[in-house]
Amino acid sequence: MREIEALSFGTIAELAERLPIRSRYFQLLLAWDAPDTTPQQLVRFFVPLVERGLVYFCAWGSNCEAVHDAVDKCDIEWGPETRHADYIVMTTWHDESLEEALWFFKVCALPNESIDPSECDRYVVAVGNPDWSIEVKRALQSIGGDADDEDEPLECQADEI
Question: How many domains does the chain have?
């Protein structure tokens, strides 16, 4: 799998504008304290990402469940017209520590089986909190192998379906 690139933006509006997507597909863990806002407002932030090849999305931070739901809504409403039938954006939201969410993203987050994970860019983006950017870089160095590392057994389980 490709290395994870850690980025930091001051506002959520910068995410779609400045994310340096280099491949057809990408995976994203977003660390963001999302404001209480309408689902439609949240969806507007994520439509460009779904259209550009988002295949796995993890949300972390306050209101992360609503952010997760917005990405799902984008995938349902805008995705099918722009890709093949068995492509789906996998999504999760995380209310544990940032380090635990990073571990999940690095070790367990694999796109739909129709997408080769080695063809995906991988990003962790902290929005509105420079301290998270520092924590992300430190944690990524200390976390074990990726999902496709054959030497390390995986114990990735979803709590809910």
Answer: 1
Contact 106, 120 (CB under 8 A): no
Q: Is residue 14 part of a domain?
A: yes
3-state secondary structure of 12: coil
CATH number at residue 101: 3.90.190.20
Q: What is residue 105's DSSP assignment?
A: H
Residue 139's φ and ψ, nearest 5 degrees, are -65, -40
Q: Report CA dihedral (18, 99, 139, 70) to the nearest 10 degrees.
A: -10
Domain with 130 in it: 4-142
Note if the pTM is more than 0.85: yes
How does pLDDT run across 44-78, given as a tens digit for each residue?
999 999 988 999 999 999 999 999 999 999 888 86
Residue 106: which of 69, 72, 64, 152 has the closest Cα?
152
Q: Is residue 158 part of a domain?
A: no
DSSP string, 39-99: HHHHHHHHHHHHHTTEEEEEEESTTHHHHHHHHHHHHHHHSGGGS-TT---EEEEE-S-HH
